[in-house]
Write a structure and sequence with these properties.
Low-confidence stretches: none
Number of strands: 0
Oligomer: single chain
Number of domains: 1
Number of helices: 5
Distance between the termini: 30 Å
Radius of gyration: 15 Å
Length: 110
């Protein structure tokens, strides 16, 4: 049953990530704004899921938020920015990492 919850959640999360990337594709942002948004929102929402029942954690935490957030895109974007602009690379990495930790902590404390 757990694997089914993860699979269903993953499909929902990946679809959400795709839809957000469509919404922000035409921005003039120097980095992938969609990846930044999903990672920050995902971290915030994960802060709420850690106190849920195990089944809810499988569905929402591992499934939905695992499919929604994307560390691989963050890694590619960071490496690309490093080659183009070290200042933008630093801003993107700090925003993603510190912002994700801060938003997770905020949601967890609520």
């Amino acid at each position: 049953m757990d694997i089914l919850l993860v699979a269903i959640g993953g499909a929902i999360g990946a679809t959400g990530r795709y839809l957000i990337s469509l919404l922000v594709v035409n921005t003039n942002s120097p980095f992938l704004l969609g990846a930044l948004i999903v990672n920050l929102v995902g971290s915030f929402l994960l802060g709420f899921t850690v106190s849920l029942s195990t089944n809810d954690q499988w569905l929402l935490g591992t499934g939905v938020l695992g499919g929604f957030t994307t560390f691989s895109t963050f890694s590619v974007e960071a490496a690309t920015l490093y080659k183009k602009s070290i200042p933008l690379f630093i801003v993107y990495v700090l925003l993603t990492i510190l912002g994700s930790i801060l938003l997770f902590s905020l949601a967890f404390s609520l």
